[in-house]
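thread: overnight batch results

M.L. [08:02]
morning all. the overnight job finished for the chain we discussed friday. pasting input first so we're all looking at the same thing
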Amino acid sequence: MNSENFSLSEKIVSTSYIRQGSQARRGHEQLIRHLLEQGKCPEEGWTESTIELFLNELAVMDSNNFLGNCGVGEREGRVASSLVARRNYRLIHGIGRSGDIAAIQPKAAGSSLLNKLTNSVVLDILKLTGVRSVASCFVVPMATGMSLTLCFLTLRHQRPKACYIIWPRIDQKSCFKAMITAGFEPVVVENVLEGDELRTDVEAVERKIEELGAENVLCIHSTTSCFAPRVPDRLEELAALCAKHNIPHIVNNAYGVQSSKCMHLIQQGARVGRIDAFVQSLDKNFMVPVGGAIIAGFDESFIQEISKMYPGRASASPSLDVLITLLTLGASGYKKLLSERKEMYLFLSQELKSLASAHGERLLHTPHNPISLAMSLDGLQAECDKAVTQLGSMLFTRQVSGARVIPLGKEQTISGHRFLGFMSHSEAYPCPYLNAASAVGITREDVTLCIKRLDKCLKTLKKEGNAAKSSSPADPSTQGDTTRE
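M.L. [08:03]
and the structure it wrote out:
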């Protein structure tokens, strides 16, 4: 409804009523105008009616929704199912063009505008959460691992002779396979144990650079968010090393946006040294479906190079999901979620510590990890070798998801590379342990139920262990010998 249509409506319905409706409409339009003018996440969230109005306005700008459109090409935004069309708000053309995921589509002005606005709003959020000097970013419809691969493939053109990626060890398959898929050889640098924490061995990283030759190293591939007792890499020192040796630096920041500490590390690393790009997951940080990531950096031209490396057009679904989510929450709503996550981290820490003490275990001291916690399972291991892995199965069947139980001595081969002590980020971590994380969206009820069910599982395993010991036959060496009384 434009002003002309509202004027015509006054001939049908009372003028005062129509003008009231027109004012209500202008309220929606004013919010949309601010978004278009500023390109930032609104401070307060929008209502669903405003968001749907906006998305419908975008959709009618795409050629597949033109009233008189006649499509004779192979890709005309045709959709067989009306349910699928509604699920995507009739934004069917996707984003980008065959040569650049960030390019404008002549057929799809609305989808192109959606893409540009999403990238702008997400950039604003990255600044809001701590990386204030980030220059550019874009949403890519791939999860974190493949997004890292895209970064590595882009660097190949800058460093055609390089064949190695130096990688401080973190036991997570996708980031390792990202390097293999890109065609590079990962050079694994073991972490050093400092107290309970596993930390970056910066000296070993520099030795590897000197041993391999800086020109043969594609980049250093570091990590922020991770499972305790592994803690975020020493990003400032690694960034300084990269600047010193003129080596690119790619950061896996998978679920680090929700942590002010992780974002501060990236900001500081870029300030004192070199960080070329950092990659983060959409689902882990913004509570949207799996399948999208944000690639961001401090040099706009390099981020544009990465976007141009993506072959073909791309799905708009991840961009649509995260834009709807951020418009719903607003900046204040997202900041509130991050604040609540920090509170739940403290609550989870206190509850795990109390539970550990009650069972003769301890909460591992990992102050440099702002998201994940770990509780020792030494006593459980002493009860029975299989009890540790059995605990993981028991928790899963009791609907405790996300908790990780890490036994000692597990071996894993990934793409021909053998890892000792896999899942513990170390060849020989001193004890088995259980992981739990306070990630964005976690509630007090989640923590309370987890602790309650974990307590019951530990009691059951202890009881079963005691029963097994009491029913086991006596030591044959002591049978029939009464002289030792």
